[in-house]
Amino acid sequence: GAVVSQHPSWVICKSGTSVKIECRSLDFQATTMFWYRQFPKQSLMLMATSNEGSKATYEQGVEKDKFLINHASLTLSTLTVTSAHPEDSSFYICSAQTGWETQYFGPGTRLLVL
Amino acid sequence: TQLLEQSPQFLSIQEGENLTVYCNSSSVFSSLQWYRQEPGEGPVLLVTVVTGGEVKKLKRLTFQFGDARKDSSLHITAAQPGDTGLYLCAASYRGSTLGRLYFGRGTQLTVWP
Q1: Beta strand ranges found along chain B (DSSP E)
Q2: Are B85 and B107 in contact (CB under 8 A)?
Q3: In terms of CB atoms within 10 Å, which end of chain B has fewer, N or C?
């Protein structure tokens, strides 16, 4: 149980294009989903917290117009990187929360912007 | 500001050795989780501890939660190459955004055969 999937697992795009990443909780309903960014050999950096049916809460320094988050249902949240640039290349990970404190993580999406 | 201090940042040991990873905070946790992450994958939950003084064991891994709920440790006995990975502690605090986890910097463990 508590499986979270992400799609795609990796994506290569040209600079200036937009990329959408999906995060799904497969066998449970998640009231909250979180989006993280991770650089090589470093820890996870929280980008935003997403609650179903409401606007996402972004961490300080994260541009909400750059990283669009939509939480359409209790099992799906999407992150769209708009007008991607090489500095947006990173490993993006989502997590879904069940209960008050347990987060289950997706397998991550590797984004490479050329 | 890094709420969680995790150490050491890197560990490189031989198979069979023991090791301990530490996670400390100046604030009291409501709960603390330990995760293990392999390259190109998401973190996998190892354990959640919520009670001060709690000790949990997972095969060769022993997790301790300090009595004051401000520190935790992960001890691995007789490490194996399969233990190689990034170990992350993450804590939640009362009064913070519901469900928000604060991560330590991570400990990159390499176990050589």
Answers
A1: 4-7, 10-14, 19-25, 31-37, 44-49, 55-58, 61-65, 71-76, 85-92, 102-103, 107-112
A2: no
A3: N
Q: Which residue of A has its CA nearest to B44?
A: A105
d(CA B92, CA B18): 28
Which tokens belong to A108?
């991550």
CB under 8 Å to A50, separation ≥6 — which residues? Answer: A32, A33, A34, A35, A56, A57, A69, A71, A77
Q: What are phi and psi of B82, to 5 degrees?
A: -70, -10
Which pLDDT score, from 0 to 100, does residue A36 have?
97
Mean pLDDT, chain A, rounded, equals 92
In angstroms, the Cα distances linking B83 to A86, B11, B17, B42, B56 are 33, 12, 12, 16, 18
For B103, the closest of A43, A97, A110 (CB atoms) is A43
Nearest-Cα distance to chain B for A71, in Å, is 16
**Cβ–Cβ under 8 Å, residues B101 and B90:** yes
- Reference B101, options B39, B51, B48; nearest CA is B48
Burial profile B73-110: b = 16 or more Cβ within 10 angstroms, e = fewer: bbbbeebeeebbbbbbbbbbbeeeeebbbbbbbbbbbe
Q: What is the mean pLDDT of residues A23-34?
A: 91
Backbone φ and ψ for B79, nearest 5 degrees, come out as -55, 145
Residue A107 tokens, joined: 């397998």
